[in-house]
Write a structure and sequence with these properties.
This protein has helices at about 110-120, 155-170, 235-240, and strands spanning about 5-10, 15, 20, 25, 30, 35-40, 60-65, 70-75, 75-85, 90-95, 100-105, 120-125, 150-155, 185, 200-205, 205-215, 245, 250-260, 265, 270-275. It is mainly beta and about 280 residues long. Strands 1, 3, 13, 14, 15, 16, 17, 18 and 20 form a 9-stranded mixed sheet that branches. The longest helix is centred in the middle third of the chain and has 14 residues, at about 155-170. The chain is globular and about 50 Å long.
Amino acid sequence: MTITVHELAYYPVKGCAGTTVDSAQVLGTGLAHDRTFMVVDAADGAFRSQRTHPAMAAISVEVLDGGASLALTAPGVEPLRLDADRDGPLLDVSMFDRPLGAAVDQGDAVAEWFSEALGVKSRLVRVAPGFDRDGWGETPGKVNFADAHAVLVASTASLDDLNARITARGDAKPVPMNRFRPNIVLTGHDEPHFEDRVRRMTIGSVELAHSVRATRCAVPMVDQTTGHRVGPEPIRTLSTYRREPEYGNRVSFGAKNAVVCEGVLNVGEVVEVAEWLGA
């Protein structure tokens, strides 16, 4: 059994489309450029999410010039090139009704662009210099604008098992991995959800440690290409075998990890599991 990295992805703007890559720098807060920007309510600074605005999934974001600028595209809106402001006006923002402090507002032009794309008054903010946010769980780690953890890990075995269960129902189609928006997809182990049991792993120079299982809301029911909610799958099927009583009986898929050692990840690299749960 050789576990390897099957896919890598980062999500420059929280809730918007991801970018798959063959190689990624991993920082203490996760893959470079991952969720360093966030769309917020123009009135109160509360974050916007696919939970309430599924159209975010169809907004593509290309990181240019090492993060100095972004190229934004969305259905029905003219493309926009944004020069990122790293040290401009500050805006107080929040996530899940919890204050995150001040973030760097990216200006009126991109605010109008996101407002048009989503049909609600919005602004775009960036992680401010010195931003320091703790995760939580078994190994808390640090995090940018992800929900609460640096790196989301899933496996092809977990998806294959889920899709076998979905198709066995006879009334739904398999779902792609992008419904779960992972950063790292692992392959090479045929045990579904083995990523839940991995407590420490090393991939090249990168070391990751388990934080919590990844509980799920409505986002996996959003088609990540069209930005339309198309449920009830995969949540319906997950609810039959992946309930988490310790987390309000929500369903789970994937595992959230903290970064212990920074470095570079590459697709195809071998994963060395240093510690398994119960081993």
